[in-house]
Amino acid sequence: MEPLAVKSTLIDAVYFSQEDGRLRVCLSNGEERQFEGVAEAEVIAMVTAQSPGKYYIENVSGRFKRIAA
Fold it and tell me: Where is the KTSC domain (predicted)?
């Protein structure tokens, strides 16, 4: 998984695998969430959004299948 730079108070780190569409989001409270079937364009939109945390909540967390960390 490749680490992606993100500036957010909610998100500490983002990792994405282009090969299988897996996304790992490390939250600032220490929780880690993993999703599958995420398109690269969606990940880029999240990390470049004005508020990556808000984008994550509104467009990623409830939309993609969450998998065990």
Answer: 7-64
Res 32: pLDDT: 95
CA distance linking residue 55 with residue 34, whole number of Å: 16
Q: Is 38 exposed, middle or buried (0-12, 13-18, 19+ CB in 10 A)?
A: buried
Edge-to-edge strands, sheet with 2-4: 2-4, 11-17, 22-27, 32-36, 65-67
pLDDT digits (tens, 9 = 90+) for 8-27: 999 999 999 999 999 999 99
For residue 20, what are its two tokens?
């299988």
Backbone φ, ψ for residue 52 (5° rounding): -55, -35
Helix, coil or strand: residue 41:
helix
Q: What pLDDT score does 69 carry? A: 60
